[in-house]
Amino acid sequence: MSRHYYILTLRTQNQIGIIHQITTCILALKGDILSFNEYVISETNEFLCRVRFEVNQKLDTSNRSRLLDELSTKYGSHIAVTPESQKLRMGILVSGQNHCLQELLYQHAINRLPVSIPFVISNHDIHAPLCQFYKVPFYPITLSSSDKKEDQILEISRHNSDFIVLARYMQILSPQFIDAYQNDIINVHHSILPAFKGGNPYQQAYDYGVKLIGATSHFVTENLDEGPIIEQDVVAIHHRNTVTDITEKGHWIEKKVLSQTCRLYAENRVLRGKQKVVVFS
Question: What residue ranges of the chain are covered by domains with CATH 3.30.70.260?
C-alpha cells in the first residue's frame, strides 16, 4: 500500500480548540498524524503549528480544498497543505565571495537540501564555472552605483522562485524590490561579539581580541539587517588565530548557518509570526 505524506502549516490567533479542530479535519481524510509541532507566541497570542501526516490515497484537489476551506473559515488565510515531496524553488543572489554559494550548490547536489535551484544571479561573472559544474543556470549582471539592475533581477526571480537566498550578496535591496517580489528573502551575515560594523569585521575582531564569532540568518525587510532572526551559531577563536584563521572560521560558520536555514525553510519548519520566527527543528 502506497503512502502519501503532507505538511500542514498554520498561523492564527490562539483560541480554544484549535488542535482538536486540526486533528478532526485530518481524521476526516483518514489521515494519520506522524508529528505535531505547535507553539504560542505569548506576546502576540499567535498560535503556530506544523503537522506532518500521511494518507493512503493522494489528496485530490477537492479534498485539499475542503481541508483548507474548513480551517481557513475558522482560523484565517495563513494556512497551507503541501505534499512533503514538493520542492520549493530557491533563487540565489551572490557577489564576489563564493563560500556560501558553494555550500548551497553542494548540499543540493547530494540531496541534503530539498529544493530546486532555477537560477544564480551575480554581479561577478567568476561564478559561471561553478554553476556550470552543478548545472545551475547562471545570470551575470553588471551593476553601477546608480543602477542596481533590480528590474532585471526581479524579472528573472519573480516568476521562477518561491524564495530568494542572499548568499553573501553585498548589494542592499530596495524597499520597492522587496515589496514587488512579495515572497520571502533570506540573508546571512557575520555576528561578532561585540558587533563590528563596516569593512573588515574579522580584522576588527582580531584587533579587539574577540573570543567568539558567529553568523545570523534572517528574513530581509526594509530595515537593513533587522529582519526576524531564523538561525544563529557561534565558533570560538583564541589569541593564536590570525586574521586569515578568523576569516576562514567566519566563512565556515556563515555557510553552515545559511545551508541549515535553507534546509529548515524548504521543509516548512520556519514559520513567521508578526514579530518573531518559530523554527520547528
Answer: 4-83
Instruction: Supply 241's cell numbers.
Output: 588565530
Task: Evaluate if residue 184 carries a pLDDT over 90.
Answer: yes
CATH fold, domain 88-279, is Rossmann fold (3.40.50)
Residue-wise over 126-146: b if at least 16 C-beta within 10 A, else e?
ebeebbeebebebbebebeee
225 flagged as catalytic: yes
- Per-residue pLDDT reduced to its tens digit, 218-266: 999 998 778 999 999 999 999 899 999 999 999 999 999 999 999 999 9
66: its cell numbers: 475542503
Burial classification of residue 223, based on how many CB atoms lie within 10 Å of its CB (0-12 exposed, 13-18 middle, 19 or more buried): exposed
Distance CA 123, CA 82 (A): 34
The residue from 69, 125, 151, 225 that is catalytic is 225
Quote the cell numbers at residue 278: 518559530
CATH architecture of 4-83: 2-Layer Sandwich (3.30)
Looking at the chain, which residues constitute the CATH 3.40.50.170 domain(s)? 88-279
What is the 3-class SS of 77-136, one letter each residue?
Answer: CCEEEEECCCCEEEEEEECCCCHHHHHHHHHHHCCCCCEECCCEEECCHHHHHHHHHCCC
